[in-house]
Amino acid sequence: MKQRVTHSSAELAIFGGDLDFREPLHVGRPNLGSREAFLARINDMLDRDWLTNNGPFVREFEQRIADMVGVKHCVAMCNATIALEIVTRALELTGEVIVPSFTFIATAHALQWQQITPVFCDIDPRTHTIDPARVEELITPRTTGIIGVHTWGHPCDVEALTEIARRRGLTLMFDAAHAFGCTHQGQPIGRFGAAEVFSFHATKFFNSLEGGAVMTNDDDLAAKMRLMKNFGFAGPDNVVYIGTNGKMTEVSAAMGLTSLESLEAFRQTNRGNYEAYRRHLQSVAGLRLMEYDDRESNNFQYIILEVDESACGLSRDQLQKVLQAENVLARRYFHPGCHRMEPYRSYYPHAHLLLPATESVSSRVLVLPTGTSIGSDDIETICQIIATAIAHADAVKAQLATTPEIAIEDALSSAPAHPIRGEL
To answer: In the prediction, which pLDDT does 28 show?
Structure first.
């Protein structure tokens, strides 16, 4: 990485300047705990000859997560998407379920996979979470449930959604994929609704290589999900329920247990990165860095930048191209919204008319790299690239207009291989 000593636009890679980063800097590189502790657990696993099927590491992992969140049951799964599918089926949701469109596509797919219609709801443009006032407008006789998403680890308006669900006789659950280690009104996320789903994917603040879990205080629901994730087996040769294979492996649980031991170090690194971005970008016109509530616990997993083109002179997509030219692979989450992806855009071609906040936010959000693989010098350089581009917005726009158009997805796919590139 070169040291940027001036703020000349000629230094930017789009004008032929040297790349600031020789290797691609991804949004979601994994946070890794102690290699020695992880390998010791792997050796224990191999010595026991127990690789899956509810082994001791999985049971320990479930108990430690349940204790940490303060719920009766943590049901670990192979990933959060399967966890969403299983809990949705276990809750016997049918017909229509209201979800935000501003979320990772798995939230909608988990419903559609089971022939449940996802009804897309608009978001609060400030918090980026589902708007309870809009939820009420979308309820029909076919509605059976609501799924709130704690976007960026920011909690939904839990109380308003709970009141609506109670009054209208609907099941309320939460996609908490972003929110492990976060709180709402001092209570750990994972305690709300009928159930909450965590993701422990490799790109998450806390990972188990790959994995997810459902948190619940409902004994019957937990028992049903344990059957469902193991083909419906209630014992050897005794299948009592329809099921699938959603089990977490011992190696994933071993990684999860190892990650737990470094949880606070990961959190503090993320917080330090967030503070560094805020310090360097606070005086740059047209940018809003998503804030975190200091009264709550947060994992600071995402650095969310909103780009106001009218104020800074560059659109979000133009700024992303400047960064990509420097090997900073900033991402457009959750562009363009589930409602504009298949099969939903074919099912609901006019959905955008009911989702003005989603349309606006998804055109402005840019996610920047963070985590334990990025340092303070990297953050300073990224912010200098952004500030330089905005300071010379007219020249940047003119240069981009003369550059052959390369789709953002193509640019990502042509970057040097990275084992988790592109995942959420």
So the answer is: 83
pLDDT at 413: 46
- Residues with Cβ within 8 Å of 330's Cβ and at least 6 positions away in sequence, in order, are 27, 319, 320, 323, 324, 366, 367, 368, 369
Please, which residues bridge with residue 143 across strands?
Answer: 96
Report residue 422 as tokens. Answer: 């592109």
Closest by alpha carbon to 296, among 185, 424, 190?
185
What's the mean pLDDT in 263-290? Answer: 97
| CA-to-CA dists, residue 12 to 9, 287, 315, 322, 392, angstroms | 6, 19, 17, 8, 10
3-class secondary structure, 323: helix
- The CB density around residue 218, as the number of other CB atoms within 10 Å, is 16
Retrieve residue 349's tokens: 């071609």
Report the SS3 class of residue 13. Answer: helix
φ/ψ of 100, rounded to 5, equals -75, 150
- Residues in CB range of 417: below 8 A, 6 or more apart: none
Eight-class DSSP state of 292: -
**What does the alpha-carbon distance between residue 302 and residue 37 come to, in Å, rounded to a whole number?**
27
When pLDDT is cut at 50, 70 and 90, the band that residue 9 belongs to is: confident
Euclidean distance between CA atoms 351 and 337, whole angstroms: 10
Give the rounded percent of residues in the chain with a pLDDT score beyond 90.
91
Residue-range domains of the chain with CATH: 9-29+263-330+369-413 (3.90.1150.10), 35-260 (3.40.640.10)
Q: How many residues does the chain have?
A: 424
Segment 70-79 mean pLDDT: 98
State both tokens at 99. 């979800």
CB atoms within 10 A of CB 148: 30
Cβ–Cβ under 8 Å, residues 267 and 296: no
Question: Confidence class of residue 292 from pLDDT cuts 50, 70 and 90?
Answer: very high
Structure tokens at 362: 């998804």
For 128-154, the DSSP string reads -SB-HHHHHHH--TTEEEEEEE-GGGP
Query: Is residue 68 within a helix (H) or strand (E), and if so which, with residue range?
Result: helix 56-69
Q: Are 152 and 301 in contact (CB under 8 A)?
A: yes
Give the count of alpha carbons within 13 A of 35, CB side only.
Answer: 1
Summarised one tens digit per residue, pLDDT across range 330-360 is 999 999 999 999 999 999 999 999 999 999 9
